[in-house]
Amino acid sequence: MTEVKNEIYRYDDRTYINAPEAKDDVELRNQIKDAGAKWDGGRSCWYYVSGAAKDEEYLKSFQEIDPQTLDKVVTRYLEISKDQLTQDVKDALKSCKAVWDGDNQAWKVKETNNVLPDALSNFKRKNYDELVKRVYLDVPVNVRKDKEKTAGLKWDRSHQAYYTTVGQKDQVASEYKGFPVFTPPTQVKTLYFELPKARTDEIFRNQIKNAGAKWTPTYQAWVITISKEHPLPSILEAYEPVKAENLKKHEVHKFVIPEAEPKQQNSKFIRDELRAAGVKFNNFEKCYEIWIPEGENLPPCLENRQEIQRKSATNAKEKQDKTQGQSHSFH
Fold first, then answer.
1. Residue 178, by phi and psi: left (phi above 0), alpha (psi -120 to 50) or beta?
2. DSSP conformational letter for 218
3. Long-range contacts (CB closer than 8 Å, 24 or more residues apart) made by 231-239
4. Which one is predicted more confidently, 184 or 53?
5. Among 231, 239, 230, CA closest to 198
6. Global pTM?
7. CA 219 to CA 61: how far, in whole Å?
8. What is the pLDDT of residues 226-269, one digit of tens each?
9. Measured between alpha carbons, how far is 256 from 308 in angstroms, rounded to an integer?
């Protein structure tokens, strides 16, 4: 193991290595990090500094790359007004993976070797001094609902605070509109996890619940919020989070199925068929329900059944029980 030196190194001291497998292999990525390598986002490549890496011999086992052969990728901000934001422009931004930067109130996109993507090449780049920055204000809780006092301010859900925007070079006063300027708590990040193990392992399910994870049926995933003060629980470190844009939105369908009642003939066969299709019984609303991705068809066992409204499920079950009770009284 090489002794780590606490020094600042020049760009020329970097040794770039070829480790594309680390993109999908979490264990390999952690090994490279632990050995002292760092990720260069501008060149999308791992590198280390000789004499500063913890395990230089391990990093030397990877193929070295000439940095001159790597594309230089930087983030550029674009000047796009609301009037220019047509559907064609929105589609172009999406195809180029451009992202709206709320802090700087501008669209940002990755530029390779000082060349913008073709679909966005007609738009002007914004200089740093043309960008804006957020100034957070300490607005008392009892004043937040006063629309007159908070007029012109915007709410930041991640920081749970009001803010206004000023130019990057503008001097920031100690207060604005009578509210003190302050530094909000660390930004909260929301992570989603698909954890199939939690469906069958009750102990594991309770452990992730106790760690702060919550089940969100709309996306059929576990969600947890983390920050600098509240990092990711160790029990979830071995799992790769799912990008929010890759999650499918689900919708719930509810049914009252009289023939699935335990006393009905062939009810066990019907319940087994429903269970195999992913249908569950909602004890609170006394009905059967299933969550499926929006736009997808119901399973065959539910196709010809009449769906009920979510809030009317209990009433429908009560009405059904009452009707059955009346009919039984005649026998």
1. left
2. T
3. 232/191, 233/208, 235/207, 235/208, 235/211, 236/193, 236/208, 236/211, 238/26, 239/193, 239/195
4. 53
5. 239
6. 0.43
7. 42
8. 877 778 999 999 999 998 888 999 999 999 998 888 888 888 89
9. 8
